[in-house]
Structure formats: C-alpha cells, structure tokens
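Re: weekly structure request thread

Next one in the queue (324 aa):
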Amino acid sequence: MASGDPNRRRTRASVNGGKPVAQPVARPVPQPIPQPIPVPIPVVPVPVRSLVDGAEQALHNWLAAGRYRQGDRLPPEHEVAAMLGVSRGTLRSALRRLEQGGEIVRRQGSGTFVGRTAAASALDERLERLEPYSSVAARRGLSLAAADVRIERRAVGGEAGEALGLAPNVRATTISRTLMADGLPVAVMFDVVHPDVALPEDAALRVALERGKMVLDVLIELGVPVTYARTRVIPSLLSPRERASKLLGVRSPKAVLELEELIFAGRDERVAYSRDLFAPGGNDVMVIRSLESTRPAPVVNLRGSRSSGPTPRRRRARGARSAG
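Done, posted below.
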C-alpha cells in the first residue's frame, strides 16, 4: 500500500528535477602509518672530576704558561693550596701525579721545583728573561767549558763602539772563545766589556771562562747592577771556509743563529756587548707569551662553588670565637 502511494512517487520524482539521486561513493578507510620501533640509546655516564683531578689540571695549566723555568722553585704548599682553594692533602695528591710525569721535582726539606723538559737543542733561551747560559746548562744537566780563550785589550771598532757609546779607537777588554757543552762545540762567543768595568786579572778571568762561566756571570759576581739586556736575533749562513765553521765542526753551508746583545746596568748604563754564533742545534731561542696571571686558577666543583675551605658563615663564626 505504501509502495502504491502516488504522492510518494511524485515526491521522489520531484527531487533533483526529476532526475535520479546519485548514491554516495564509499571512500577507503585510511590505514594508520606504522611507527618506527624506538631503539634504546645507551646512557653514557659523564665522568665526574675529583678535586685531585681539578687541582692537577690547574697546576699543569699554570706551569705550561711558561712563568716558571726548569729548576725554578714553586711557592710553598700552603700558598699554592690557598690559591687553588683546596686542602693541602688534595694538593699533595695532585703534586704526586705531576711528579710521576716529571713536571715537578719534590725535594725533602727544600721544596717543589719545576721538572725537566725534553728539548732537542743543547741550550734553550727565553728572550724575555736575562739569564747566563751557565744557569741554563745547569738545569739541563750539561757541563760547560770554554776552549780557545783569548783576552785582549784593543780598539773596540765601529760596531761595538757604537753599541757601547764609545769612539772606535777606544781600547777595551775583548774576549773570544768557543763554548763547549759536554765536550761538543755549541757556540763561538765574542764579548767587549766597557772600559769603566774593572774586570779581574786576566789569569783569574781565563780560569772562570774556561770553567764555563759567562761574562754575565763575571759581571754579577763583581757586583755590577745588571738590570736588562737588548738582544737581536740574526739568522746567518755559515760557510765551511770561515773560521767559526772550523771551530764548530761545520763542514757544509749551514743556517745558524747569531745573537747580538747589549747588557745594561741601572737604567741606561751600557756595560758589555756580545755577538754569539751558535752551531746548528746549539741553541733554541723562544718567546713565550701568556696572559698575565701570577697564580693558578682555583679549582671549582660541579656546583660552581669553591671546592674546599670554610664557607663565609663558618669564617665569621671562627672570627667571632677568636675575637671572644
């Protein structure tokens, strides 16, 4: 009966202008995208530095800056511990490590000294520090001596005279010699001493030089107030025909190092002039530049505070007890 209702048919025919209604198209159901299986990442624990590790690193950085040379004595333990902000026990543990590596030498009753460092040259010189080669050799464990020592009184000439502020015809003491390190020639040296400096007798001066002392050593022992030196580094090519080549055992053309130096006493008093020609490998000249710091950096723990030592509150409490 419902299917034969004419009004129902008209209603269906009137929809969409009498055209058949389109059936909805079935759409595919979206499938979920497979997710990658998470791979567990191993957690590597961050190593925590101990106070000894921090103290060792701070001391290593301090010594590496070049403020101290081999054989120099370091400040007392209590001062270094205060600089680092660690206890003396922690400091001693760090020093033991440095001693095992050869960076320092500890002598019972004497203190702590900068250890030996390997070098390819017979001598090494820091231009920012005035020091006799005898002291450098002593730290390196070398035995110095001099051969072919000549001590003369003669006119200084133009070059040395200009350096010393003298006329070329002024007579002064000149010294020439070959410096030997452990029996091997390492340098040919020529010195001119200002005539105002009263040197020892020639015989005593010769003995001192033959035993490896430098003219700078002699000046210091005489009480000359040496303050600084002006040094010029001159690269040179040494020919086998030159006398210096024969003295140094150079048999073929070699690049060598020559140092021209003027020594001053007081502010501007010129006392000695020298020209030293070094054999290949005879001297290693260096300039070490570092940030100005006279003390090692304090050790800091993971929280950013000082590693040891009383806190400010404890310091105040101790001060109150001592005052009472």
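Residues 51-64 form the longest helix (14 residues). The chain has a mean pLDDT of 78.
Next request, please.
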